[in-house]
Amino acid sequence: MLEKGSRYVGKPVERFDVEKVYGGALYASDLDLSGMLWIKLVSAPYAHAVIKKINYSEALKIPGVVAVFTGEDFPYKVGIYAADRDVLARGKILYYGHPVAAIVAESLDTAEKASENIDIEAEPIEPVLTIERALSPEAPLIHEKLGEYRRATFINPVPGTNIANRVKLRMGDALRAIEGADVVVEETYRSDPQSHAYMEPWAGAARVRSDGTIEVWSSHQSPFAVRNLLAMSLGIPVGRIVVHHLYTGGGFGGKAGLLLEHIPVLISMKLGGAPVFLSLNREENFYYMAQKPGFLFKMRTGASKDGRLLAHIGEYYLDAGAYADYTVNVIRSSTFMATGPYEIPHIHVDGYAVYTNKVPTTAFRGFGVLELTSAFEQQIDILAEKLGIDPVELRIRNALKPGYSLTPTQEILAEDAGAPAEVIRRAAELIEFSRPPGRSPEPWRIRGKGIAAAWKGPVQPPNASSSAIVKLNEDGSVDVLVGTGEFGQGTIVGLAQIVAEELGIPIERVRISPYRSTDGVPYTWQTVGSRGLYSDGQALIRALQDLKEQIREIAAKVFKVFKDEIEIRDGKACVSGRPRECLSLEQIALGYTFPSGETIHGPLIGRGTHVPSGTTYLDPETGRGNPKPFVTFIAGAVEVEVDLVTLQVRVLKAALVADTPIINPGLALGQVYGGVVMGIGLALKEAIEFDETGAIRNASFLEYRIPRVEDMPPEILFESLGIPQRNAPYGAKGIGELTALPWQAAIANAIYRAIGVRIKEYPITPERLLRAIREQRPDLLDMLRKNLMG
């Protein structure tokens, strides 16, 4: 647990990655392997079509072109949870921009020139571009062999349809309970697909060494996941693959799992092991990398007149795009966290991941809980209004109670799970929710306040393990080997703080490299789900315990005392109560040599592993089980200003409260700032726009509208309640993803409280706001005309 006298843990220690500032950091796009060849992908100009012929003879005539490959050269099916993806389009084109060929050349310029000489003959099929059309019995099938794909046991596609996965959650008798509810709210919520908008487009390289080892470098989040998925998809032994992790310029879930690494790997194998490199520009990144799914959530929620939530019935749909990728698991997360941080005794929810002929979608920050929260937290506000109960009070009244409440997966929430009600109450206090909002001097600028709460834990299998190695060097410094990836979140700083705290050494003497390879660090499942510091931190603490046990053993033999009499502090091992009888870490790093020359122990290396305790698989018919090693509870509140002239919505103030202790307040605050700005973008600005052919209209940062500096709220408040969880490093849980979860719903709720207009489709653009005003509050337009025209 966090102690007041801690030297490093709980303190805002500065980040280690200053080399990013002066250009010293190495990213995948910086790779320049000796003799490296360049890959250029050629994309399809159809959203859905049968391939007749791909003619590349003219491309091969261009000097410097080494080879051209099509899907017929690679008869593999790859995927994360379902092997439904061709390496390059084979037989059918499934979305506009689908890669159909790969050109290999001596330079990028040559490869790009050759790409203009590829002729694609195809017979178009009706593209399926919406969830509703995909579910229609008359819709063309996107995957005719859906039932034949290799898949994870918990993925349940429906062959003969476009349903990539169906998930069930059942508790109590929701259909009967909702009939007896005093108030029922039935609403539908939607969102367009959106982009992760990370700064670094994807890049990757591969080569085969003379001993047959396949080396891979790429912009990814989880090196061991890339290695294992490559091995499984391509039939290559795991031991033959080495994946290198460099700095990664953001991920937000979009660089988890297997991305495009299989393409350079297979091409290198075809070319005798030659090093090959594939680097995407921003437009290509929109098409070739999976994006955030759009959603359609249908909800019916019932409550008693005294404000007790009784039942919830839902149909949750995520747009998977052309391939299953992570979205077939994301829908499981949306479904199993179905009702937010509230106790509802009767639940009946069906979740669906649905194929469409659009760019594939994948994990995004929150892994389905962001989508759920943006819908369900509006549902709560609508219920509160119908009941005549303050929305904060309704949330607190129904908040889960640790040690008592059943979660939607029918497990009693652990006693140390956190503080659901307290984060809601405190967020409301910070935003002064009970007080009227400020007033703008211009009457057409109207302000309102909104609130939303969420909970989130990592979505991972029960055996999602981590491991760590701590090596004591001859000068008393420490090298730490962990598998977790570093892509901007600062996890390695937090891990270094734990080492410095446990050993009592200056943090400058702890080294954790941001670069790692699967043959040089111990195994970690993945760096996803806000689990890095939690999971790797526990493995690291066990490695430090192992190291300290060895230190005590040596010191006890030297001073002829019992091991439990040895204290480790300030980089020394001392006999308790005898401060002069000490050994420095430098003296025992390689063991200890007595004056006679006799040496005991040898080099000191600590090892530790962590696997979650008590987590289980979920019952496919009911969703019952214990899927998460921890949950973090948060609440966010905002004050917004709606400008009825420009139809712009500005967030004036944001407040976020989390229940967990914080290892590094500076890193946490950075996450909060990033989460707020991301949430504002998702709520008000960001959408991937498709035309009627399935092409993306805004595949660049010129047209895809992400927030800018002026969109940041002038005031952002953050508090942590510091409530510890057992079996967590210093009681701390993950917080990264949660900082982005509440803002869409909080902003939508604030807009409603400002102008009485409820918008249930994201993003809330000026066009959608105007349409909603015309439908729900046309009197606002009359008021505006009166104020502007006198």
Describe, in plain words, how this protein is organized in 3D.
- This protein has 790 residues and is of the alpha+beta class.
- It has three domains: 173 residues, Aldehyde oxidase/xanthine dehydrogenase, a/b hammerhead (Aldehyde Oxidoreductase, domain 3); 328 residues, Aldehyde oxidase/xanthine dehydrogenase, molybdopterin binding domain (Aldehyde Oxidoreductase, domain 4, 2-Layer Sandwich), CATH 3.30.365.10; 148 residues, Aldehyde oxidase/xanthine dehydrogenase, molybdopterin binding domain (Aldehyde Oxidoreductase, domain 4, 2-Layer Sandwich), CATH 3.30.365.10.
- 25% of the residues lie in helices and 24% in strands.
- It contains 18 helices and 32 strands.
- Strands 3-7-1-14-11-12-13-22 form an eight-stranded mixed beta sheet, with helices on both faces. A six-stranded mixed beta sheet has the order 9-17-16-15-10-32.
- Strand 16, helix 8 and strand 17 form a beta-alpha-beta unit.
- Helix 8 runs parallel beside helix 9, helix 9 runs parallel beside helix 16 and helix 15 packs across helix 16.
- The longest helix has 28 residues.
- It starts with 36 loop residues before the first strand and ends with a helix.
